[in-house]
Amino acid sequence: MSPQTLYTDLKHIKVTLDDSGIALLELNRPEQRNAFSNPMKDALVEVLGRLDAEDKVKVIVLAGAPNKGNAFSAGADLSEGDFSAGSGINDAARNMNEHRDGGGQMTMAALRSIFMSITRTTRCPPGITMTLPFDIRVAWKDAKIGFVFGKRGIVPEAASSYFLPKLIGHSRALELFMTSRILPASSPTLSLLFSSLHPTPEATVEAALSLAKEIATNNSPISMALTKALVWRGKDSPEEQHLLDSKAMFVAGNTMDSKEGVLAFKEKREAKFPATVPKDLPTEFFPWFSLRDIRDIRRSKL
Fold first, then answer.
1. What is the pLDDT of residues 75-130, one digit of tens each?
2. Element (H, E) at 16
3. b/e per residue, 183-208, with b = 16+ CB within 10 A?
4. Whole-model pTM?
5. Cα separation of 156 and 123, whole Å?
6. Which residues of 71-110 are buried (b: 16+ CB within 10 A; e: fewer)?
7. Measured between alpha carbons, how far is 261 from 160 in angstroms, rounded to an integer?
8. CB of 54 within 8 A of CB of 16?
9. What is the 3-state secondary structure (H, E, C) of 190-235?
10. 215 exposure class (CB count in 10 Å sphere: 0-12, 13-18, 19+)
């Protein structure tokens, strides 16, 4: 069965869903090398919310539409302006407390998503940074990766100063931030950022979709959702994490997916998990954390 096209009302992105529950989300501004714009940000935040609420979706793969520059994303579309507060249609923030970084709004919306594919050249901001909250990143070996904030006179956006040190360590993260170097994905400095590297952009997409199918087919959606939340929404000490894990084990162990997983193991067969997310998430436990409102009060140009 051919993948189903979804959400054609949203601009600058393309979404398809296959019968395995894999949603392929493409940045779709090929003429601009998939540069990040305010309309694209709005579409990404909206579509991630929709996918988050869709029980059929098990894994999300993010890719860039093919383009002449082989770009996953060329970063911020500077034809829209600079990084200062806008006016008129963008309705400038009156002060720093009202400003909301657009890249950060996207990464906050992505926190539940299960997968990320970096398929082609990408530069930051906010190309590579939008991938950081996703669970797995795969890359074309010759993709160009840069955290070039210093060369633009700004600071790391999209909460990358939070995510990147946790993914690759503080020393490597600061080297990338402080030098603003553009490196190939195969650079040793980036070795902890990518799960695997591939010889061509096309092979990268194939690998991402293959891994997505493995995850969607073999694993409980409840288990994946709770596990990601435990990693990103954990506690500050081993003892507190133990107490949180204990609650999670209690509720997960009593789900229909847990019963099916144990039974499948005993019967030496593949599990067929019946639960879906978000419908079957254990609401007596999840979410155990509170979410701050990060919606636009007013907008910046980018």
1. 777 777 777 766 433 445 567 877 788 888 888 888 755 554 444 445 455 688 98
2. strand 13-17
3. bebeeebbeebbeebbeebeebbebb
4. 0.87
5. 13
6. bbbbbbbeebbebebbeeebebbeeeeebbbbbbbbbbbb
7. 36
8. no
9. HCCCCCEEECCHHHHHHHHHHHHHHHHHHCCHHHHHHHHHHHHCCC
10. buried
Q: How far apart are alpha carbons 23 and 242 in whole angstroms?
A: 34
What distance in Å separates the CA atoms of residue 143 and residue 182, rounded to the nearest whole number?
10
3-state secondary structure of 283: coil
Cβ–Cβ < 8 Å for 26, 61: no
pLDDT in tens, 57-73: 999 999 888 887 777 88
Residue with tokens 């949603």, as numbered in its chain: 23
Q: In sequence order, what are the residues at sequence separation of 6 or more whose Cβ sits closer than 8 angstroms to the Cβ of residue 190?
A: 145, 168, 176, 183
Of the CA atoms within 13 Å of residue 192, those in its CB half-sphere come to: 13
Is there a contact between 90 and 301 (Cβ–Cβ < 8 Å)?
Answer: yes
**Closest by alpha carbon to 120, among 67, 76, 77, 173?**
67
Cα separations (Å) of 197 from 31, 41, 110, 118, 302? 26, 27, 23, 10, 31
Residues paired with 15 in a beta bridge:
6, 25
